[in-house]
UniProtKB/TrEMBL annotation:
This is ABC transporter permease. Belongs to the binding-protein-dependent transport system permease family. It is a multi-pass membrane protein. It comes from the Bacteria. It comes from Mobilitalea sibirica. One of its GO terms (cellular component) is plasma membrane. Signal peptide: none annotated. Its main location: membrane. It is found in: Cell membrane. Keywords: Cell membrane, Membrane, Transmembrane, Transmembrane helix, Transport. Gene3D superfamilies: MetI-like. Pfam families: BPD_transp_1. One of its GO terms (biological process) is transmembrane transport.
Length: 249
């Protein structure tokens, strides 16, 4: 297990090194303040963190996206289990999901802002609207993929419905939930960046665009670096959750 963690750490370090090399080459090739040097950006990032000018934006963005993930799991998993186990519910609700899921959710941002205000609620609900459909469909399909013979087998052991869920259904679909989270996180962070440019004064998205308006490209790239680190932290948290809850993978 420790060796696997070391390998994952080396992969992350190697990938980061490649990104910084490409970044530095781009800085040299363009020879413009628009793309500052990685070293200058890292130093500026450290200063912004120490002074707290960037820390609050990071904390608020992480709060928004983690809250959306937790709520989406709380809503999506039960509904997905219900659709997967009930043909009648699947026949009624799945068409609704098919209609709403492909719609770009950023189109609903003005509506969410009018209904839920200009603060955190509208932005969190916007991210939920992206993640929750992915989880619902993933859980539903995961339940349907469980062979019928498995249900017969566990019923012969005298397990009740809750025990069947806990010992067979949920362990079977949890790896698929982790995969759904990985797929939706990238889109969610991009959407968070977009939403934080409207009627707000906090968040990494606001910080980046404000620095762009102020023509402070070093701080702008420091904000981009912060958003990248936030994404890495979330992905690593998902990896940790997978190791803890799905040790058989």
């Amino acid at each position: 297990m420790r060796t696997q963690k070391n390998v994952q750490g080396y992969k992350t370090l190697f990938g980061s090194l490649i990104v910084f090399i490409i970044w530095y080459l781009l800085h040299i090739f363009l020879n413009s303040n628009i793309v500052p040097a990685p070293y200058e950006t890292i130093v500026t990032f450290g200063k912004l963190i120490m002074t707290g000018d960037l820390s609050l934006h990071i904390i608020i963005s992480i709060f928004r996206i983690t809250t959306a993930i937790v709520i989406s799991l709380g809503i999506g998993i039960p509904i997905g289990l219900w659709l997967g186990l009930s043909k009648r519910a699947d026949a009624v609700l799945s068409p609704v999901t098919y209609i709403l899921y492909p719609i770009p959710k950023v189109a609903f941002l003005p509506l969410f802002m009018m209904l839920f205000g200009l603060g955190n609620s509208s932005k969190i609900i916007l991210i939920i609207s992206i993640i929750v459909f992915q989880i619902i469909l993933t859980v539903r399909d995961g339940v349907k993929e469980i062979p019928t013979e498995y249900y017969y087998s566990v019923k012969t052991l005298g397990l009740n419905r809750w025990q069947i869920y806990r010992n067979m259904v949920i362990p079977a679909v949890f790896p698929k939930i982790i995969s759904a989270l990985r797929v939706s996180i990238g889109v969610s962070i991009a959407t968070l960046f977009f939403s934080e440019n409207f009627a707000t004064t906090y968040g990494i998205g606001y910080f980046i665009m404000n620095c762009w308006v102020m023509v402070d490209y070093i701080q702008m790239f420091a904000g981009i670096l912060a958003m990248s680190i936030m994404g890495i932290v979330i992905f690593k948290a998902i990896d940790l959750m997978e190791r803890k809850l799905c040790p058989w993978i």
